[in-house]
Write a structure and sequence with these properties.
Elements: E1 2-3, H1 14-29, E2 36-40, H2 51-55, E3 81-85, E4 88-90, H3 92-99, E5 102-106, E6 110-112, H4 126-134, H5 136-145, E7 149-150, H6 151-156, E8 162-164, H7 169-181, H8 185-197, H9 203-220, H10 222-231
Helix pairs in contact: 3-4, 4-5, 8-9
Length: 239
């Protein structure tokens, strides 16, 4: 899925946000699709919410329920999404990237809470996901200062997971998505679900939730099938 507004560095206005939500609803409903890749056209991922739309008063339509201002940021999918980041992923664009499961960034990409300088708050779960991902101190630094974060630093603090040559983020993200799509999906989704949901649970509840999700996979036969392949020598040594 490509945000295609290169003339505004793929800033998201309400119409674009609605289209993104519709795209991800279709992805979630299609059983033949296993992994999505989100990127931006024209050499940038996303520059955030369209400030021209905000200046027109579109911000008054924002609500606490339903889709986020940037679109899918409040959606909880059962399938992974990979962000392919070139250029700028800032403000709400950073929040979109944080919503994704994995982030593949070009070496010269820039991330950051650039909305700080314009008095625009993070309301697409940026203040929640960012400290959980990189720790409160680092998150507070980025949130309060709004400073640019080069991709190399972003990799070092855990803000992105892959660093690739400029111009190759989309190809590398698609390759990563294909590798994920080739894996047994029951266990992958159960483990992913447990990682995402454990934040709001006590340790005891998280243990039980992990077991409930995992035991369903075992009962489905997926684990036994994988074990038989292992016994037969298939898939060993990373093959």
């Amino acid at each position: 899925m490509t945000i295609d507004r290169p003339e505004v560095r793929n800033a998201v206005d309400p119409d674009t946000a609605a289209r993104l939500v519709e795209c991800f609803k279709r992805f979630a409903a299609d059983d033949e699709l296993r992994v999505a890749v989100l990127t931006g056209a024209g050499g940038n991922f996303c520059a955030g919410f369209d400030l021209k739309a905000l200046a027109r008063g579109d911000g008054r339509r924002l609500k606490t329920s339903g889709p986020g201002p940037m679109g899918p940021t409040r959606m909880f999918l059962d399938k992974p999404v990979v962000a392919a980041i070139e250029g700028y992923a800032v403000a709400g664009g950073l929040e979109l990237a944080l919503w994704c499961d994995l982030r593949v960034a070009a070496r010269d990409a820039t991330l950051g809470v650039f909305s700080r300088r314009f008095g625009v708050p993070l309301i697409d779960l940026g203040t929640i996901r960012l400290p959980r991902m990189i720790g409160q101190g680092r998150a507070m630094d980025l949130v309060l200062t709004g400073r640019p974060v080069p991709a190399v630093e972003a990799l070092g603090i855990g803000l992105v997971e892959r660093l690739v040559p400029t111009g190759t983020a989309l190809a590398e993200a698609v390759a990563l998505a294909r590798r994920l799509a080739e894996l047994p999906q029951g266990a992958l989704r159960a483990d992913r679900r447990s990682v995402l949901k454990q934040w709001s649970l006590s340790v005891d509840d998280a243990i039980r939730a992990e077991f409930r999700g995992g035991i369903k996979v075992v009962a489905s036969g997926e684990s036994q099938s994988g074990a038989r392949q292992f016994v037969e020598g298939i898939g060993r040594h990373g093959e």
